[in-house]
């Protein structure tokens, strides 16, 4: 363990947070973590990290605090209040929020943290569970250049593409665009799958050849097996993509951008959730197309 590496507090050890924090431990960082589930804390300790009993305890001695929780309300819950990050972190600490939240929440957090002498980066990620495990995430960052430069070695232990996109909130804006593209892409793939199957084509062969042409995409590559096997174990839950479609449609309305196809896919995601599929992977958009096409699912 090099003394030169900053001490890390990691808040939120879910599908993404657990493997990401473990990648920092593998890179030689001292990581103290907190999350609500005891089994996740046990997993962190088994990987060589330190489990804390509260947010306050986790962040007290940290140089860098990383948060990875589901949405804006959870970020606010762990950041604010007497037991939150801002009251308990030391001045000069760097808070990196890697959750996917509204750009405005990130802007507000950076202002509140600034009053406490705490620097903030919003740094949402793309790449899903596989990208987190393999440390090949795409990380889109909003904030100050100097803070980004300081955090870059840490980001490079977690991801492959790391880009400062602009001031506070910019990372979240780019993430919202990412989620728009991913949802529309999955929907297009799902429609193609149902069309191909109903036409009696060998689906695996069809997806292989489509993947090698202009229709190929990271989405198709990553989700092909989900489609083929109807395996919708969540890498990224419909519930979370529903939240993200709300973020992008709301943010787009605020800046005067029209998202006609995005609006349709947002409704399809919402309908899938209303039918009880919110806990499934977002590749389960296939189920919605199947239902619309008269297939019993």
TrEMBL record:
Pfam entry (one): NAD_binding_11
Residues annotated as domain 3-hydroxyisobutyrate dehydrogenase-like NAD-binding: 169-288
Every 6-phosphogluconate dehydrogenase NADP-binding domain range: 7-166
Key words of the record: NAD, Oxidoreductase
Highest taxon above the source species: Bacteria
InterPro entries: 6-PGluconate_DH-like_C_sf (IPR008927), 6PGD_dom2 (IPR013328), 6PGDH_NADP-bd (IPR006115), HIBADH-like_NADP-bd (IPR029154), HIBADH-related (IPR015815), NAD(P)-bd_dom_sf (IPR036291), Tartro_sem_red (IPR006398)
PANTHER family per the UniProt record, alphabetical: 3-HYDROXYISOBUTYRATE DEHYDROGENASE-LIKE 1, MITOCHONDRIAL-RELATED (PTHR43060:SF15)
Protein family according to the UniProt entry: Belongs to the HIBADH-related family.
The protein's name: 2-hydroxy-3-oxopropionate reductase
Protein's organism: Streptomyces venetus
